[in-house]
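Hi L.,

You mentioned the student needs an example of a multi-chain input paired with its predicted structure. This one should do, with 623 residues in total across all chains.
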Amino acid sequence: MQRYIAGRLLLMVPTLVGVAVLTFMIMRLVPGDIVQLRFMAGGGTVSRALIDAERHRLGLDKPMLEQFTDWMTAAARLDLGTSLWTNRPVIEEIGLRLGLSLELALLATVIAIALALPLGVIAALKQDTWVDYAIRVFSIGGLALPSFWIGILTILLLLTVFRWLPPLTFTPIWEDPVQNLAQLIWPALAVGYRYSAVAMRMTRSSVLEVMREDYVRTARAKGLGERLVVVRHALRNSLLPVVTVISLEFAFLIGGLVVTEQVFNLNGIGKLLVDAVVNRDYTMIQGLVLLLASVFVIINFLVDMLYLVLDPRIRYA
Amino acid sequence: MTAITRDAEELARRRFLERTGWARARRAVREFIGRRPLGAAGAALILLMIFSAAFAEVIAPYDPTENRFSDLLLPPSAEHLFGTDAFGRDVFSRIIYGARTALLVGFTASLVGSTLGLALGVTGAYFGGRVDQLIERSMDILISFPLIVLAIAVVAALGGGEGQVGNVVAAITVPIIPRVARVVRSSALSIVSMPYIESARSVGAGAIRIMARHVAPNVFAPYLVMTTAFLGQAILLEASLSFLGLGVAEPTPAWGLMLRGAGMQFMERAPWLAIAPGLAISAAVFGFNLFGDSLRDALDPRLRTA
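Structure written out for the whole complex:
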């Protein structure tokens, strides 16, 4: 058991190093030079010597391998370097935006669960009736409608019907909850609907499977009410795959809301990433991708551990 | 020739046709529609999309890239079904031509991605040991990137924009590979321990021949299911990338791009610009999802692609 956990933990290291190598290499393949881009942004021409001096200052003239080891040793001390574009520490830039992204991800997940669990269970219990079909079409709709389009429609609706737009600046929830929610609830709804679809489909198929188990028949045979059978026996046992899907999605939500943030003009992690790509800000992209991949790998690990807790039948040697 | 022999010949001919030709295909189609109405609806949407992409020149009333500065931001009318955009281009025509971009990117990315995934998954399962470990770990790395982040990284490396449809396809292909490879590998693992694989090996068949002729055909069902499932995803991803300005570039008609350009800017003055392309994307993805779902139920009920 301990050996299994230790093994899983150790496996995370090569994966993350692989992610680091891959991002590092991808970024060096990108055509376009950050230093030139930044100087050109101000307009006018710059002398070759000045560009070379700046490249030297940023360490971009060192051999590739040295740049990589420099970056990795610093990253091991949780120092992701400074942004090539703003000259501020990458960690600081990320920290500024993490609050918004985390809150949005949490809100969206709560909305997704609130939609997915009841609808999924009802669809399973009423399998192949019109209720089931309606819920399934609703959920497939969630998969098909791009969340950024739902976002655009939401803004359009608010604008034309209520002549009102969500506030544009982010207020932390502990300062002014109303202002905060007025901004974040709309993107959370748009994203939550989409992500509820996946969880809903998983709930439905999982409940369907469990309802055919012997212990459900036993529970019914001993005279338990249908409600109790569903809540106590079926739902509990069918939650495992649902929990997995939801946690993995949560990991995606933190960095994957790139497009939604663009639509709602939110200054979150996703926008930071797109800006960094457009500006060729190597250190920022590397830091962000490494962070997002780490979040994903760690949540993956936690899900596996959760399995051990939730299902006593699972025992790894 | 007597009537009897002619009848017999006719009967044989009919039987032959029934076994091979159109009759069988027709019966299969009729059965699919009867048993899986939702899947048939999806197939209809897909066919509609393929039809408009194939005959775009005939269907579209205007040139999708022609600017007419006398007709800017016109609301929907009989002349312009979905109105015109900020350059006076006919939105309906751009939607019709946009089906081309979406299908081109969707089909290429999901076919290439799942086929590479198939090859990697089968190879890993067949050889096992070190090879399998190496492939599995590499897939782990690729899967650790959020889908859109990986796509953005590939676009960043290859460069998006003007005439770069190939790069956009590559960006969407890469995230598909590990996801398919995993599913295929787990199906292939049970195949490689089958007696017929051993007997193929004992008569001296090479590894490549065994994988191609004996393992791959037996994991075709999950492969096909994943390919259709990712078709919708690929179209969605293309739209997202174009929307971010990292995908297909103007003036190519692409749905995501239409939402980005005028859709956001003139939202209040010209809401039709934001509605029509979004509807097109949704209908396409909806169609592929419905069809893929039914295909999965028909081919492999155990497989769950959430």
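You could point out the following to them. The longest helix of chain B spans residues 91-127. Chain B has a mean pLDDT of 81.

Best wishes,
N.
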